[in-house]
Design brief:
single chain; about 150 residues; alpha+beta; five-stranded mixed sheet; 11 strands; globular
Length: about 150
């Protein structure tokens, strides 16, 4: 019985350590770049999220990051903070073969959103400041028509 419990403990440790080493950074295709969403500090309640609202002319459903082509210079960014939201149109000429991320600063009822180089932390797009609005009771609805300019 003791040998079985020792085996199970060792097996558990191997599985956990193996899963932690499987975190993979997505590859970049030559001539493309990657734009990652804002990653809030890990808490019990996820209250802070910034990601693309549109991807290739459609409503974005993936909340992590996207591989994009340099021709894509206009972005609609969705920010959610507690029960508030903001939609921000951003323009940036991002260089291929690089990784970027959305970032933010919140002060009272306003949010600053910018794009920065993921490696250096250098801002590559001017920060946009907008007022946070109360989230509609039925949630934020973005239509495909809203996304047409962001192909």
């Amino acid at each position: 019985m003791k040998q079985l419990s020792t085996f199970l403990v060792i097996l558990f440790i191997v599985v956990v350590s193996g899963c932690n080493s499987m975190i993979i950074t997505p590859e970049l295709d030559s001539g493309s770049y990657r734009l990652e969403s804002y990653k809030a500090p890990v808490t019990d309640i996820k209250m802070d999220q910034i990601s693309l609202a549109c991807y290739q002319g459609r409503v974005a459903v993936w909340q992590q990051g996207y591989r994009l082509n340099p021709e894509q210079t206009m972005f609609l960014v969705k920010a959610q903070y507690r029960h508030f939201y903001a939609l921000v149109e951003m323009q940036a000429n991002l260089a291929p073969d690089n990784r970027y991320r959305l970032n933010r600063a919140i002060e009272k009822d306003a949010i600053d959103i910018w794009i920065e180089n993921e490696v250096t932390g250098e801002r590559v797009a001017k920060a946009k400041t907008v007022l946070l609005k109360s989230m509609p009771a039925n949630g934020l609805k973005i239509s495909r028509r809203d996304c047409q300019p962001y192909i």
